Amino acid sequence: MVNEHDFSYIRKLVYDNSAIVLETGKEYLVDSRINPLAKAKGFSSLSELVKKLQQTPYGPLHYDVIEAMTTNETSFFRDAHPFEAMKAHVLPEMTEKLALRKRLNIWSAACSSGQEPYSLAMLINDHFAAQPGWNVNITATDISEEMLSYTKKGHYTQLEINRGLPVTMMVKYFENHGSVWKAKDNIRNMLDFRKLNLSGPWPMMPKMDVIFLRNVLIYFDQETKRGILNKVRNQLNPEGYLFLGSAETTFNLDDSFERKLIGRAVCYQLRA
Fold first, then answer.
1. Which CATH number applies to 4-70: 3.10.50.30, 1.10.510.10, 1.10.155.10, 1.10.760.10?
2. Which pLDDT score is estimated for 72?
3. Which whole number is the average pLDDT over 47-75?
4. Which CATH number fits domain 81-270: 3.40.50.150, 3.40.50.720, 3.40.50.740, 3.40.50.300?
5. Domain coordinates of the chain in residue numbers?
6. Could you tell me which residues are annotated as the binding site for S-adenosyl-L-methionine?
7. Which of 40, 75, 81, 122 has the highest Cβ tally under 10 A?
């Protein structure tokens, strides 16, 4: 198990570069993610790796540690309710309200290995199949360059495919290439991939009609959450929708948002 000194160093390194908080009790996570990295880099132990980090200026090794600690697990159509709300309510409403503009901007923030933005792409492609002429852009962002590179390829193992992806969609939107399934070009081309640190400055992006910011705020402290939601407020169109994770809320963080219930999904809209 990682010792207190090494845990404190890694916790500060991760917080200073991503604002993600590794609370006491997360030693097991550091141990499970950094020990394999230490061995892969030729160190005899996690402590030897930390010692090297402390002795050298910030560089690729520090970045590798941050990457290892900021990569989160995900799956296709994770926590199905937001996707059900998109299909049954949000997309039909947007289709009607934006009929003249015929442009829809969606953002999947902290997309990790990409199952969320690909899930959105499949859902949207199904919805607009009978309504040509729409320009739908899905921006997929993550702090990890490794994850973005993985997501861009659209390659998933059978195990990853089995986690949440219906067989009908697998056949329709993926092609089998030996040991991997590759996303077809029609949905890969819907995605715009960008590196983005939620706690840092944001690049110029279009105003968003829907923002998926799910299962990431839980890793930040209260001040960082408020800062992120403040920027989300400015990024979201007045009648747009914000989806958070099931354990997340804007309550006591930003009163500009109003909680809405669509079916069994909780989402947020800006107050009029």
1. 1.10.155.10
2. 75
3. 90
4. 3.40.50.150
5. 4-70, 81-270
6. 72, 74, 78, 116, 142, 197-198, 214-215
7. 122
Sign of the Cα torsion 226, 4, 197, 69 reads: negative
Q: Give 11-66 as a DSSP string.
A: HHHHHHHH-B---TT-HHHHHHHHHHHHHHTT-SSHHHHHHHHHHS-S-HHHHHHH
* pLDDT tens track for 140-152: 999 998 899 999 9
Q: How many CB atoms lie within 10 A of CB 7?
A: 21
Q: What is the pTM of this model?
A: 0.89
Q: What residue numbers does the annotated binding site cover?
A: 72, 74, 78, 116, 142, 197-198, 214-215
Kind of pairing, strands 208-213 and 180-183? unpaired
- Percent of the chain at pLDDT > 70 equals 100
Tell me what the mean pLDDT of segment 138-164 comes to: 94
d(CA 262, CA 204): 30
